Amino acid sequence: MFAIPLTENAELRTLDPWHAEEFAANLDRCRESIRPWVGAAFVAEGVDGARATLTRYAEARAKDAARLYGIWRDGTLVGGVLFVSLSVKTGVCEIGCWLEPAAEGNGLVTRACRELLDWAFGERGMHRAEWHCRADNAKSAAVAERLGMTLEGTTRESWPFDGARYDSQIWGVLTSEWKKP
Ligand SMILES: CC(C)(COP(=O)(O)OP(=O)(O)OC[C@H]1O[C@@H](n2cnc3c(N)ncnc32)[C@H](O)[C@@H]1OP(=O)(O)O)[C@@H](O)C(=O)NCCC(=O)NCCS
């Protein structure tokens, strides 16, 4: 119900507070692999922490300011994609993603992001979609490139993590450039 098929065994659905246990289990399988690359607030601990993150996104969704979607493969939540932010006023949104290691390498996130971009440009009138990643996050940058985004710039030492600072990249795609494959 309310699902978009991504492959024959994977689908995209909204990820809501009632999925807290599944989300906590997904995070348990990928916490250490995603921690260097995503915002610290996203890497929740335990079911209560997972529910708090999902509730924060549900509240932002009610304000039309962010949205969270899960990717289920063979019935298991393996990751997801999100509008980190979305502003109807400025027409600018930012997309993000995560996957547990066992689900990488299958094109799930690229497919899911295409659904988000199509909705953002086609239904919500967004003008520009951004992708922010650590400059040394080659897998994330590869997704942005597959989505047809342009590397627009590098912000130096803007990503603090674990006592060090890393450069960040900003990728972007405009509504005039977007064409779903
Ligand atoms: C970023 C991340 C989601 C990318 O995962 P991913 O599996 O490489 O991305 P996709 O799901 O789009 O799959 C692409 C891979 O599947 C392969 N693939 C197979 N079929 C494909 C298809 N039909 N379409 C696209 N790619 C396909 C691609 O070749 C690629 O594999 P490769 O890197 O070995 O060449 C993942 O590495 C991750 O969760 N990292 C930690 C968190 C993170 O960095 N989040 C982003 C923060 S900015």
UniProtKB/TrEMBL annotation:
GO CC terms, sorted: cytoplasm
Keywords for this protein: Transferase
All residue ranges annotated as the N-acetyltransferase domain in the record: 10-172
Single annotated GO MF: protein N-terminal-serine acetyltransferase activity
Gene3D superfamilies according to UniProt: 3.40.630.30
Name the record gives this protein: RimJ/RimL family protein N-acetyltransferase
Taxonomic lineage: Bacteria, Bacillati, Actinomycetota, Actinomycetes, Micromonosporales
